Amino acid sequence: MVQETTRFLSYICPHCMQSVIVERDLFSLAAAPARIKCPCGKSELLVEFLPNRVQLRVPCLFCGREHTVSCSSRSFVRERALAFSCAASGLDCCYVGEEGPVYAATARLEQAVDKLGADAAAQGAFLDEILMEEILSELRDIAAREGVSCSCGSKSWTFQVNFSSVDLICQDCGGRLRLPAATAGDLDDLCCQTTLQIHGKDEV
After folding, report:
1. What is the dihedral of CA 191, 193, 198, 199, to 10 degrees?
2. Which of 16, 40, 85, 103 is 20 to 30 A removed from 168 (C-alpha atoms)?
3. SS3 readout for the chain
4. Does pLDDT of 1 surpass 60?
5. Is 108 found in the same domain as 170?
6. Domain check: are 68 and 108 in the same one?
7. What pLDDT digit, counting tens, does each position of 56-82 carry?
8. Looking at the structure, do residues 46 and 110 belong to the same domain, yes or no?
9. Count of beta carbons in the 10 Å neighbourhood of residue 129
10. Alpha-carbon torsion 171, 176, 182, 185, what sign?
């Protein structure tokens, strides 16, 4: 297996609303903090390698603030795709990973942004209430088959419903798995799953 030597990073600029997707060499990212600027010049994503972790400072389109998030160096280097979310909205604000998954995830986020703009006047409890009902129904079916577990070995879990996502939370280790609930594609993805595994806290 060939080890990837580059990472694709993406976010949506909160000022010009355009997606920023760049490819960066892992060696250069590890050597010094990287500032990934939007062409409009009004926002930037900061990536910094720390001992055993990678920290990112992400401008957020949804809440207007910057989020400081982190993951293990191993996950940053090896995962096909990592998603970092805005706690206030439940929507993703940054992706890191391989080219295909990052471009696909960013395209879906753009759809969610378009829907959010179109539905702004409604101000409902969820981004799409019908879609959320279907997501929760599918989740209930998976749970009824005892298809939800945590990588720590626990099968005790609860969930939290957000504006455009559902968080599955392990009751033993506190690990979380976020299920997007913003587009029809999110529902299609969930319908393809027979089991769901929460990522234990020791994995991140």
Report:
1. -120
2. 103
3. CCCCCEEEEEEECCCCCCEEEEEEEHHHHHHCCEEEECCCCCCEEEEEEECCEEEEEEECCCCCCEEEEEEEHHHHHHCCEEEEECCCCCCEEEEEECHHHHHHHHHHHHHHHHHHHHCCCCCCCCCCHHHHHHHHHHHHHHHHCCCEEECCCCCCEEEEECCCEEEEEECCCCCEEEEECCCHHHHHHHHCCCCEEEECHHHC
4. no
5. no
6. yes
7. 999 988 778 899 999 999 999 999 999
8. yes
9. 12
10. negative
Answer whether 186's CB lies under 8 Å from 138's CB.
no
What pLDDT, in 10s, does the model give residues 102-141? 999 999 888 887 776 655 444 456 777 888 889 999 999 9
Residue 103 shares a structural domain with residue 196: no
Domain extent, residue 188, equals 129-203
Please state, in angstroms and rounded to a whole number, the distance separating the CA atoms of residues 97 and 195: 23
Contact 150, 173 (CB under 8 A): yes
Report pTM: 0.63
Residue 2 in this model has a pLDDT that exceeds 60 = no
Q: Is residue 106 part of a domain?
A: yes
Task: Specify the residue for token string 């986020």.
Answer: 109
